Amino acid sequence: MFVSYLILTLLHVQTAVLARPGGESIGCDDYLGSDKVVDKCGVCGGDNTGCQVVSGVFKHALTSLGYHRVVEIPQGATKINITEMHKSNNYLALRSRSGRSIINGNWAIDRPGKYEGGGTMFTYKRPNEISSTAGESFLAEGPTNEILDVYMIHQQPNPGVHYEYVIMGTNAISPQVPPHRRPGEPFNGQLGTHGRGQEEGEEKEEAEEKEDVHGGAPEVFTSESAQTFPVRHPDGFSSHRPDNVVPAAPQPPRRSRDHNWKQLGTTECSTSCGKGSQFPIFRCVHRNTHEEVPESYCDSSMKPTPEEEPCNLFPCPAFWDIGEWSECSKTCGLGMQHRQVLCRQVYANRSLTVQPYRCQHLEKPETTSTCQLKICSEWQIRTDWTSCSVPCGVGQRTRDVKCVSNIGDVVDDEECNMKLRPNDIENCDMGPCAKSWFLTEWSERCSAECGAGVRTRSVVCMTNHISSLPLEGCGNNRPTEATPCDNGPCTGKVEWFAGSWSQCSIECGSGTQQREVICVRKNADTFEVLDPYECSFLERPASQQACHLKPCGAKWFNTEWSMCSKSCQGGFRVREVRCLSDDMTLSNLCDPQLKPEEKESCNPQDCVPEVDENCKDRYYNCNVVVQARLCVYNYYKTACCASCTRGANRHAGFLGSR
């Protein structure tokens, strides 16, 4: 009867809507032309004050591995969203306050999917694409019927977990769709014009039915159990009536007391194994013949509510649950990837992890595999190190390093591992840059054939960068470039007498020539030298001029000898020898056979110890002091002065001979 009433009501509503020009929309309150909508709290026509959105970010720095609680989801929460802020090796876990694991419990990682818990269905997502940066997430519509706890299985630094859910407030009104109404009840606060008479008729018939129930057969169910049975509505029609349409008052068919509801079998089990569910099927039958008749013959309000019954309780066969492959351990070249393989069984709509032996009838899939995203490029050293950029001191040298692909092409450096790149530049130390005077040998000829003249040599200060000899800087003590020479006296007459030009002061390059200019008196066969003023009335000839015989080419230059390494018993001293060209640059064109010696012996005489009258042995057994090496102490050094001194001289001579 109630169903028939609803069908007629819906037909009236549909006719009224189609009759209105343009057609008006129906709000969430089922009123035609209403503009009410459901707010974020799920309340029809609400103002978003009937609930509270709880959100935050869990950013605590965790130090120990394992399960760490993130947030508590209270009972009644809806629109639940728990999401990692960035991809990581951590996992999210969910369990009830009673301790029952829902997702990723007991160190077992579940596959992404849907999991029931807390009275709602959670969707577990775990993006696994290599390019994806999204983290794990739990999503559920709710509401929850118990308190749930969200955990993080901590394995690496926490990237942050964002949580959000909605809870209803104290001033919230009943959300979503209005409840089903009995025929004749107020429709959104409005009563139909003829609904009251219908209601009275219904009450009268119900009273008659109740009288029959009290004395009828035991197969009839009470109306209390029928009140929770959901009403099925015809497809395509709304289950509520708009306020501006008055429903007709159809006369319900008269129900006979000869019929009642009876269970005729059950529905098919929802699963073939692992505990499913089924429901009893109730049909309207004749009380005496038990013959099935149309449901309109029975009181729909007396129809029992089908209660869920378990079925197929035996567990399903175990199976291997295969997880997704992890990312390749290497971006190029041969690497490894892993996946989780767990033995599972389905029971009571839950997938449970069981001992591996239960899957022994099946071949276990591989948990590791090789992988190669691409062939790696490698570094190649194309050239040797160059010479140092400076002749002395600290400079740099370089070499050519390229990134080469597996087919031999030069590619960008980013294609190779930058951490393994060989150095292509490094410092080089060529030793200290010292300076020394370099000298040529004295010229062989004197500048004057008779009388006083000079011999010359070349002197140049050069940087010493190819030797580690103990030479100091050039300083101000420049060696002389000329030295006097005398080839004997000359004779002449009263006049300026100019001698022949001397040989050039140097055998090559730019030098000077000297000649003697004197005032003489020429006698018959002799010359008398006079004071220069005696010839002052005459023009004095030049006594010096420049000369240039030929380009020098390369010539050996050498420094002065260093100090002898020992003052006696034979030492050595050294000097540096260079081959220099005309412009005083290094050359390799000198004759090697004419190269001056760079090292020679010196001070070959024996060392004579100085005799100190105060240095004597005070004890007869000072030789024991020397053998025991006690001379380093002042007391023994004084008490056995002579023995300690001789021992020290022998030790010094031994070191010098090595």
Secondary-structure blueprint:
Blueprint: H1 2-19, E1 51-58, E2 66-73, E3 78-84, E4 91-96, E5 101-103, E6 113-117, E7 120-125, E8 137-140, E9 148-154, E10 161-168, H2 195-215, H3 223-226, E11 259-266, E12 276-278, E13 280-286, E14 309-311, E15 319-322, E16 335-338, E17 341-347, E18 350-353, E19 368-371, E20 378-381, E21 394-398, E22 401-404, E23 410-411, E24 425-429, E25 434-439, E26 452-456, E27 459-464, E28 482-486, E29 493-498, E30 510-514, E31 517-522, E32 527-530, E33 544-548, E34 555-558, E35 571-574, E36 577-580, E37 599-602, H4 622-627, H5 634-639, H6 641-657
Signal peptide: 1-19
Region (Disordered): 174-262
GO molecular function: metalloendopeptidase activity
Notes on the structure:
This protein is mainly beta. Among the domains are: 51-168, Jelly Rolls (Sandwich), CATH 2.60.120; 268-311, no CATH class; 317-373, TSP-1 type 1 repeat; 378-430, TSP-1 type 1 repeat (Single Sheet), CATH 2.20.100; 555-602, no CATH class; 615-648, no CATH class. The protein is built from 6 helices and 37 strands. The strands form 14 sheets. A 6-stranded antiparallel sheet has the order 1-10-3-8-7-6, with no helix packed on it. The chain has a 4-stranded antiparallel sheet with strand order 2-9-4-5, with no helix packed on it. The chain is elongated and about 190 Å long. Mean pLDDT is 76; it is low at 1-23, 171-254 and 466-471. Residues 1-19 form the signal peptide. GO terms for molecular function: metalloendopeptidase activity. It is found in: Secreted, Extracellular space, Extracellular matrix. Keywords: Extracellular matrix, Hydrolase, Repeat, Secreted, Signal. Residues 232-243 have a biased composition (Basic and acidic residues).
